[in-house]
Design goal:
Layout lengths: L1 H13 L21 H15 L3 H12 L7 H17 L3 H13 L5 H17 L3 H13 L6 H13 L3 H17 L6 H13 L3 H15 L2 H13 L3 H13 L6 H13 L3 H14 L6 H13 L3 H11 L7 H12 L3 H14 L5 H14 L3 H11 L3 H28 L1
Helix pairs in contact: 1-6, 2-3, 2-4, 3-4, 4-5, 5-6, 6-7, 6-8, 7-8, 8-9, 9-10, 10-11, 11-12, 12-13, 13-14, 14-15, 15-16, 16-17, 17-18, 18-19, 18-20, 19-20, 20-21, 20-22, 21-22
InterPro entries: TPR-like_helical_dom_sf, TPR_rpt
GO biological process, one term: cell division
Protein name: Tetratricopeptide repeat protein
Length: 420
C-alpha cells in the first residue's frame, strides 16, 4: 500500500490549490475553488488525525458535512477524500472505498484528484480481493491517461492472476517489463515473480526457466538458483541442473538440507560419487544434513562407487541397524568380502539373514561359503553352498562353488598327506 499512501501526500498538496488553477491542461471543465473556510476545517481534521485523534478528526468532518448544501463539487470531493483516508487509517477499508467512490462521482474536480483516487480505489479493491472491481477502476483510470503506465499494468496483471485469468494476466505484466527494459531499467523484482508465477500456471516450464535465468542474473538470490535448477530438472536438462546446484553450493547458497541432498543425488546419478559423498559427509558433520536411513544409504552407496571401502564400511555399519530389512547388511557383507575381510563378511551376511526381508537371501549363503573357502574352512563352506542351493536364484552359482570347494578340499588333503 506504499503507492496508496503516496497518493495521500499528493492529495494533501491539492489542498493548497485554492482556486480553479487546480485544473490541468487536459481539463476543459472549470473547477471551482476550494475556499479558505472549508480548507481550514479539513486541515484541522487532518491535524487531529495526525496527532492520533481519529475520532476527533471524524467529528470535525461530520460538522463540515452538515454544510453540504453550501459547498461546491471540489469542496465536497475533498471532504469525501478526507473521510476515506481517515477510515483507511482505521483499517475500515470498505468504508474508505465507499467515500473514495463519492470523490470520483463529484463533477467537476481536478483531473489529478480524480486519477489518483481511481488508482487508490483499484489498490484498495485489490486488498479486499475484489478483482473485477480492480479492473473496472483501472479501466476508468486508463481512459484519462495518455499511455499505459507500469504501475497500472502490474496491478491489472495481479488482479487477473488472482482471478485465475492467466492468459490475460500475461499481457500487461509482459508489457510492464518491456517498458522497463526498453528504458534500460531493471524490472522490479516482484514483477518478475508475478511473470514467473503466471507462466507456471500456464504450464510453460521453458518460459519459467527463462524468467528465472533473468532473476538469477539480476538479483543473484539463493532461492532463484535453486528454483532454476529445479526447472532444468523438470525440463530434463540434468547437466544444467547439476551445474546450477554445484555453483550455488560453492557460493554457499544451498542452505536447506533437501537442496544439498538433491545435489548429492545428482552427483551420484551423473557418476560423480566422490563429490556426492563429500557433500553428504560435510553436511552430516556440520549437522545440516540429518543422519537418517535415507541419507546414510545414499552416502554409503556413494562411498562404495567411489571405491572408498573404509568409509563405505563405516557408513553401512551405521545405516544397517536403522533399516527394517537386512539389505544393507547384505551390501556390507559384499563390500567386506571384496575387501578380503572374510570374518567380518561372514558376520555381516549372518546379520543380513537374521534380519530377513532379503530379495536374494541365497546370495548371503554364497558369500558365507566364499569367505569360509578363503579361510580354508572347507566343510563349513560346503554347508553354506548347500544352503544356497535351496534358492532358485543362487542354486547354479552355489553348485559351481561347491564343486570348486570340493576340489580345493581334496587338493589340500593330498598336500597334507604328502607333507606328513
Amino acid at each position: 500500500m506504499n503507492g496508496f499512501k503516496q497518493n495521500a501526500v499528493m492529495l494533501l498538496l491539492l489542498l493548497t490549490m485554492l482556486s480553479s488553477a487546480a485544473v490541468n491542461a487536459q481539463q476543459t471543465e472549470r473547477v471551482p475553488a476550494l475556499r479558505e473556510a472549508v480548507y481550514s476545517q479539513l486541515a484541522r481534521a487532518q491535524e487531529m488525525a495526525d496527532n492520533g485523534d481519529l475520532q476527533g478528526g471524524l467529528a470535525v468532518l461530520k460538522n463540515v458535512e452538515g454544510k453540504l448544501d453550501s459547498m461546491n463539487s471540489y469542496e465536497r470531493a475533498m471532504l469525501w477524500n478526507f473521510y476515506g483516508f481517515m477510515y483507511y487509517e482505521q483499517e475500515r477499508i470498505d468504508d474508505a472505498i465507499r467515500y473514495f467512490d463519492q470523490v470520483v462521482d463529484e463533477q467537476p474536480i481536478p483531473q489529478p484528484l480524480r486519477q489518483n483516487t481511481l488508482f487508490s480505489l483499484a489498490q484498495l479493491s485489490m486488498q479486499q480481493g475484489s478483482y473485477q472491481q480492480v479492473l473496472s477502476y483501472l479501466e476508468r483510470w486508463q481512459a484519462n491517461s495518455d499511455e499505459p503506465q507500469s504501475k497500472a499494468l502490474v496491478l491489472r496483471a495481479q488482479a487477473l492472476y488472482q482471478a485465475k485469468r492467466f492468459d490475460e494476466a500475461l499481457v500487461p505484466i509482459n508489457q510492464a517489463i518491456k517498458i522497463a527494459e526498453d528504458k534500460a531499467d531493471r524490472p522490479d523484482e516482484n514483477w518478475l515473480i508475478l511473470q514467473r508465477a503466471i507462466y507456471f500456471e500456464l504450464e510453460q516450464p521453458q518460459q519459467v526457466a527463462r524468467v528465472l535465468e533473468k532473476m538469477v542474473r539480476l538479483f543473484n538470490k539463493p532461492e532463484y538458483w535453486v528454483q532454476l535448477a529445479g526447472m532444468y530438472g523438470q525440463l530434463g536438462q540434468e547437466q544444467k541442473q547439476l551445474a546450477m546446484l554445484e555453483t550455488a553450493y560453492q557460493m554457499g547458497f544451498l542452505e536447506k538440507a533437501a537442496d544439498k541432498v538433491n545435489l548429492a543425488q545428482l552427483y551420484y546419478l551423473n557418476n560423480v560419487p566422490y563429490k556426492s559423498a563429500q557433500v553428504l559427509a560435510a553436511g552430516m558433520q556440520s549437522g545440516a544434513i540429518e543422519e537418517n536411513l535415507r541419507n546414510l544409504k545414499l552416502l554409503a552407496q556413494s562411498w562404495v562407487l567411489a571405491k572408498e571401502t573404509e568409509k563405505a564400511v563405516a557408513t553401512l555399519q551405521k545405516a544397517a541397524p536403522l533399516a527394517e530389512d537386512g539389505e544393507l547388511y547384505a551390501q556390507l557383507a559384499q563390500v567386506l568380502l571384496n575387501d578380503q575381510q572374510y570374518q567380518a563378511a561372514i558376520r555381516a551376511a549372518e546379520q543380513a539373514l537374521a534380519k530377513g526381508g532379503l530379495k536374494k537371501a541365497g546370495n548371503m549363503h554364497v558369500a558365507i561359503g566364499m569367505a569360509r573357502l578363503q579361510l580354508k574352512q572347507y566343510e563349513q563352506a560346503l554347508v553354506a553352498f548347500e544352503q544356497a542351493k535351496q534358492y532358485d536364484a543362487s542354486a547354479q552359482m552355489a553348485a559351481q562353488w561347491q564343486k570348486y570347494t570340493q576340489s580345493e578340499q581334496r587338493q589340500a588333503q593330498v598336500l597334507a598327506e604328502l607333507s606328513s
